[in-house]
Specification:
heterodimer; A: 321 residues; mainly alpha; MetI-like fold; B: 357 residues; alpha+beta; 19 strands; elongated; binds adenosine-5'-triphosphate; binds magnesium ion
């Protein structure tokens, strides 16, 4: 035992080299599992999609007879008369749902439920989670039931007729309102959970200090709470933007893109996987998806700038492991 | 500003955190709230700050009842153990934050912040964030933020507990000095008796939500009104033993089975004829002598300037401070005396002092 220690003391040279290697490679070793997952499940699909977007692959060509066609799919997108409308639809849908619900209402609900007695807040938040764990089809069926035309529909029969409003078929009448509501009520619960746990973990002394310093409720939210949950705000905003850009199942179930509610991801789905004529245009759909990926990355970078990401992730204080 | 608590009680559900406390500060006085963990010090302070509303009783600021006045209208400054500096604001923004909320004009705001920063010696740190400061510097900024409002009352909740021992010592002196200069009524929560004894003009000792004593430090030390105060104040703590005090002519003696200790007539008279009472003796009131009570050294703990020696007499142990030069060792036979005019007596049932009530 003591001999071992003595020997270790002697061969300092090679040890130092080993030490150096370990130090250089240590961080990579720690990051390896996550990196491998990202590579397999994120980077690889993106590369494959970009690859397919450069081909004319479709049901007609099959997986054998396709050919590289360069950027032709992108050219088709830009020349397509529908793409402008659909792009505007997408921006509108994402911005409004995100600001009103996925971040806005999430924040309001989180603030409210953390400023009422704990049990009540907890119960309310649990109830709000129910739609998220309801199967999408059932969830949209419930909305259809709410909005259905006269003589059916909760809205028509029980809420509006007593008020003297003329019954309507609500989804075609206000398609965007219902698309945004159906997505927003589910989307808001994600931010609500993140924000309320972030608010609850702000040390109590800050709240007391803010009160003593003279903050009103609004000032406390504006100057103390919001700056302290900037990190979760960035996360939820980014995550939900990407999620809204790419998710389409509720729109698919509710309107299937009718009444001018087609959004970019739904368009990609329709062209690549669910085509009326039976010709699934995989290449074209992949090009649509690639544009979404690019928009998503640009948005994420913009958000990081806006929230001053570099300030949030400061250099660790511990320098050596 | 005179702060007055009248029969103040605070309950959280079934838990009585503060139990019928009566207390009145003088204008500009430095008062310490002292007590063990969980006794209700912070709760009391937060009621004075207006964060909690008393369940019962009245809190007055200079005669005005403030029970329903929100914290921002009480003109108080508060300093926390955790500093509670807003991490996203620079030192300057932290200092000016209370004034910004009050809409103080910009030039006056900056001037006041600069003045306080200079007073606290943090003038060179104004554009740093709290995360880039040491604990001591953060505590200075926190103190500055409390002072910049020119508050009527300063509240401290264990502000020095997170600092290292040396820094605590110097900050202690500095806070004391500042408070004297500014003359702001201050209420200072601590569980460190040395802090309370050295800084406060009067100390309120709290136990289980109840006020045990409220008096100047020396009185607390020399005339403890309850067994709890006697045992809580003083380091090393007081020795306690159960005795019976008997009169022997003009002289009084405290007796327990194996020992007989002469006590002064003045003190002995109050305890005589009451059956079993608790006698308290401070370690520094026990001295070694040639003709005294015989005992055996049980433990020796060197404290540097003194040795803390545990002397055993039968089943009774006495802790005493001894000159390390004597070189006492475990097992040595010693004889000691007890200063007869310094002993304390307590009723074992009520735990109240028999001497000071
Ligand atoms: N918000 C609360 N809800 C329920 N009980 C509480 C609450 N705040 C304090 N208590 C209880 O009241 C008692 C006094 O608490 P307090 O924080 O005033 O103690 P303290 O003297 O400041 O202790 P410490 O030295 O540990 O800070 C404790 O028993 C505590 O558990
Ligand atoms: Mg406390």
């Amino acid at each position: 035992m003591s001999e071992d220690i003595a020997r270790m003391g002697q061969c300092k040279g090679p040890n130092r080299l080993l030490d150096h290697l370990r130090r250089a490679w240590g961080p990579f070793l720690f990051m390896a599992p996550a990196t491998i997952l990202v590579l397999i499940f994120f980077l690889a699909p993106v590369i494959i999609i970009i690859g397919i977007s450069l081909t004319n692959m479709s049901s007609a060509t099959g997986f054998k007879n396709w050919a590289w066609i360069g950027l032709q799919n992108y050219g088709k997108i830009f020349r397509n008369p529908k793409s402008g409308t659909i792009f505007r639809n997408t921006v509108f849908y994402v911005l409004v749902t995100l600001s009103l619900f996925n971040v806005g209402m999430a924040l309001v609900v989180a603030l409210l439920t953390t400023h009422v007695p704990r049990r009540g807040g907890f119960l309310f938040r649990s109830l709000w989670l129910l739609p998220r764990i309801t199967p999408s089809v059932v969830y949209i069926m419930m909305w259809n039931y709410i909005a259905a035309d006269a003589p059916y529909g909760i809205l028509n029969r029980h809420l509006l007729t007593p008020l003297g409003v003329k019954p309507t078929n609500w989804v075609p009448a206000q398609p965007w309102a219902f698309v945004i509501l159906t997505n927003g009520f589910i989307g808001a619960s994600f931010g609500m959970i993140i924000f309320s746990s972030a608010i609850e973990s702000i040390p109590r002394d800050y709240m007391i200090a803010a009160l003593v310093d003279g903050c009103s409720l609004w000032q406390r939210i504006r100057y103390v709470i919001l700056p302290m949950i900037r990190w979760p705000l960035l996360f939820v905003t980014t995550y939900q933007t990407l999620s809204l850009l790419t998710s389409f199942e509720y729109i698919l179930l509710l309107t299937d893109g009718q009444f001018n509610t087609e959004v970019w991801s739904l368009w990609a789905y329709h062209r690549a996987l669910n085509n009326y004529w039976g010709n699934f245009q995989w290449g074209f759909g992949a090009a649509l998806a690639t544009i979404l990926v690019i928009v998503g990355i640009v948005m994420a970078v913009v958000y990081m700038r806006y929230f001053q990401f570099t300030e949030l992730v400061q250099e660790p204080r511990i320098e050596a492991l | 500003m005179i702060v007055k608590l009248e029969h103040v009680t605070k309950k959280f559900g079934d838990v009585v955190a503060v139990d019928d406390i009566n207390l009145e500060t003088r204008d500009g006085e430095f008062v310490a709230l002292l007590g063990p963990s969980g006794c209700g010090k912070t709760t009391t302070l937060l009621m004075i700050a207006g964060i909690y509303r008393p369940t019962e009783g009245v809190i007055r600021f200079g005669g005005r009842v403030v029970n329903r006045v929100p914290p921002k209208d009480r003109n108080i400054g508060m300093v926390f153990q955790s500093y509670a500096l807003y991490p996203h604001m620079t030192v300057l923004e932290n200092l000016t934050f209370p004034m910004r909320l009050k809409k103080v004009p910009r030039t006056e705001m900056l001037q006041r912040a600069q003045q306080v920063a200079d007073m606290m010696g943090i003038g060179h740190l104004l554009d740093r964030k709290p995360g880039q400061l040491s604990g001591g510097q953060q505590q200075r900024v926190a103190l500055g933020r409390a002072l910049v409002k020119q508050p009527d009352v300063l509240l401290f909740d264990e502000p020095l507990s997170n600092l290292d021992a040396r820094l605590r010592l110097s900050m202690r002196a500095e806070i004391k000095r500042l408070q004297l200069d500014l003359g702001i009524t201050s209420i200072y929560v601590t569980h460190d008796q040395v802090e309370a004894m050295t800084m406060a003009e009067r100390i309120a000792v709290i136990r289980d939500g109840q006020l045990q004593a409220f008096c100047p430090p020396n009185e607390l030390y020399d005339q403890p009104r309850t067994l709890f105060v006697a045992s809580f104040i003083g380091n090393p703590p007081m020795n306690f033993l159960e005795v019976e005090v008997v009169a022997d002519g003009d002289a009084f003696k405290a007796r327990c089975p194996e020992i007989e200790i002469p006590v002064s007539a003045e003190r002995g008279r109050a305890a005589a004829g009451r059956g079993k009472v608790v006698m308290g003796v401070r370690p520094e009131d026990i001295y070694l002598t040639r003709d005294g009570i015989a005992g055996e050294v049980y433990v020796v703990e060197p404290l540097g300037r003194d040795d803390l020696v545990d002397v055993r007499v039968g089943d009774v142990h006495f802790k005493t401070l001894v000159d390390p030069g004597l070189g006492l060792k475990i097992g040595d036979q010693v004889r000691f005396g007890i200063r007869p005019e310094r002993v304390q007596f307590f009723d074992p049932r009520t735990e109240h002092s028999l001497l000071w009530n």
